[in-house]
Design a protein that fits this description.
By secondary structure, this protein is an alpha/beta fold. Helix content is 21%, strand content 27%.
C-alpha cells in the first residue's frame, strides 16, 4: 500500500465554494455493501435508513479562529488551533519563519498577542493580553471562520460562513474545522427521520487543522496522525448499546464521529465512555468494531480521510465511487455533496 494509491485528479470546478440551499438538497451517493451505486439526495436519507437505526452526530462548534494582524508594517495571518489555557494558544502563521520570540502581533486596538515560542513543526505559541470571556468576545469580533485553504475568501472573510460552516447541532466550542457531514442536516430532515423511527445522539470531537493535511510520506503507515480531543459520555455509550440490542444500525455522521466511536470501542465492539485525545489512523486493513454505516463528504486526494473510507468500503470500490461522482458532477469537499457507505460484512 502506497500513498500514491489514494491520489486522483479533480476538476477545480467540482470544489464547492458554498453549501447547497437548502442544506438537505445536496446530492447523496449511496454505496451499498454490494451492488452498484445509487444517485440520491440527502433528503432521501429516511428512505435509506430504517426504524431503530441510530445516527451519531458531532456537536463540536467551530470558533472564528483565523485572525489577520500586523507586526509593524507586515501583515500576518494566523489560525489558532489549540487552547493552552491562560491566554496562550498554539497557532499556525503564514510566514512563521520570519517571526521571532517576543514579536508583538496586533489584531485590533484592544486585541494583541506576543510570540511566546516557535516550534520545530513550524507553528508558534502566542500569548494574548486578554483571557477567558474577554478573549472570546474579542475573537468573536475580529476573527473569521477558518475555512479550508481550497475555499477562497477575501482576507476579511465572508459573513455567510459564520452560519454556513456550522452544523445545527453545534454547541461545544473548540473546533477549527467543521464536521462537514453534519452540515447537510436541517430541522425538516430530522423530523422526517424521526417519523421513520430513526434516532440520534451526540458525541464531541474537536476537529483540528490536521484534517486538511495530505499524507506526505510514500508509505502511509509512516504518517504521524494529528491528535484531536473528544468525549463520549456514559449516556451515549448506553444509547449505542441499546440500539445494538434492538437490532438497529450505528450510523456515524462524519469521519470525526466514526473515529471517536472506534476509539471508544473494545475488541468485542462494545462502545465504552471515552474522554481524551485520539490519534486513531484508519487505513485499509482496519477491522471496524463500532459502526455499520458512514455518512461523509467526498475527501481530498492523499488524505487520511480518503484512506478511512477506503478501509470501510474497499479501495477499488471507493475509487470506482469517486470516479462515478466526478463523471456525474458531484460537488466535492467541505461544502460539497456526500456519500452514504454501508459496511461490508
Amino acid at each position: 500500500m502506497r500513498t500514491d494509491d489514494f491520489d486522483f485528479e479533480l476538476p477545480r470546478e467540482l470544489i464547492a465554494p458554498h453549501p447547497s440551499k437548502p442544506r438537505d438538497a445536496a446530492r447523496l451517493l449511496f454505496i451499498p455493501a454490494s451492488g452498484w451505486f445509487e444517485d440520491r439526495q440527502i433528503a432521501d436519507l429516511p428512505a435509506l435508513l430504517r426504524s431503530g437505526d441510530l445516527l451519531v452526530f458531532n456537536d463540536t462548534k467551530v470558533i472564528p479562529a483565523r485572525l489577520v494582524g500586523r507586526r509593524g508594517e507586515a501583515v500576518i495571518e494566523i489560525t489558532l488551533y489549540r487552547d493552552l489555557g491562560g491566554g496562550s494558544w498554539r497557532a499556525f502563521a503564514k510566514g512563521a519563519r520570519r517571526l521571532r520570540v517576543g514579536d508583538r502581533l496586533t489584531f485590533a486596538a484592544d486585541f494583541a498577542a506576543a510570540v511566546a515560542e516557535k516550534h520545530p513543526e513550524g507553528d508558534v505559541t502566542l500569548h494574548f493580553d486578554l483571557k477567558a470571556e474577554a478573549f472570546q468576545d474579542a475573537l468573536a469580533r475580529h476573527g473569521t471562520m477558518p475555512l479550508p485553504p481550497y475555499i477562497k475568501r477575501p482576507r476579511q472573510g465572508d459573513p455567510r460562513d459564520r452560519i454556513d460552516y456550522q452544523t445545527i447541532f453545534a454547541c461545544a466550542e473548540g473546533a477549527v474545522a467543521a464536521p462537514t457531514a453534519g452540515l447537510h442536516f436541517t430541522p425538516a430532515l430530522l423530523e422526517a427521520l424521526a417519523q421513520r423511527g430513526v434516532r440520534w445522539t451526540m458525541v464531541t470531537l474537536h476537529v483540528g487543522p490536521g484534517t486538511f493535511l495530505p499524507v506526505k510520506v510514500a508509505d502511509p503507515r509512516n504518517h504521524r496522525m494529528h491528535s484531536e480531543w473528544g468525549i463520549l459520555t456514559p449516556e451515549v455509550a448506553e444509547r449505542v448499546a441499546a440500539a445494538r440490542r434492538e437490532g438497529g444500525r450505528i450510523v456515524a455522521v462524519g469521519t470525526t464521529s466514526l473515529r471517536l466511536l472506534e476509539s471508544a470501542a473494545a475488541e468485542n465492539g462494545e462502545v465504552r465512555p471515552f474522554a481524551g485525545e485520539t490519534r486513531l489512523f484508519i487505513m485499509p486493513g482496519y477491522r471496524f468494531r463500532a459502526i455499520d454505516m458512514l455518512l461523509t463528504n467526498f475527501h481530498l486526494p492523499r488524505s487520511t480521510l480518503l484512506m478511512l473510507v477506503a478501509a470501510l468500503a474497499g479501495l477499488e470500490r471507493i475509487k470506482a465511487a469517486y470516479a462515478h461522482a466526478i463523471a456525474s458532477g458531484y460537488r466535492f469537499f467541505s461544502y460539497g455533496d456526500a456519500c452514504l457507505i454501508e459496511r461490508p460484512r
